[in-house]
Automatic annotation (TrEMBL):
Its main location: membrane. This is 4-hydroxybenzoate polyprenyltransferase. One of its GO terms (cellular component) is plasma membrane. The lineage of its organism: unclassified sequences, metagenomes, ecological metagenomes. Belongs to the UbiA prenyltransferase family. It comes from hydrothermal vent metagenome.
Amino acid sequence: MYAMADREEDLKIGVKSTAILFAKYDRVIIGVLQILLLLILVKIAIIFKLGMFYNLSLLIVAVLMVYHQKLIKNREKTACFKAFLHNNYIGLVVFTGIALKLSFFQ
């Protein structure tokens, strides 16, 4: 998402960023990677039996990912940068789900 925010600058100075590499497929590739991450997190939930709080956190993560896709839909520079900055909440939500599981159901 960060690379999408400065695509024009990268083109001007000749940097080969992922946004340039992926071109018009950048949103699709980000979406595929988001789904892959979500599937891995679900697999972790199953393997370690992380329960309700973690599962709820994954639902919130899915909503955040949809929000990020909505932000980057038009590839507008400030919206892409906003999605990049907002992306850290995914890690926070996953961490919170694990912390709640470990705090209440040890």
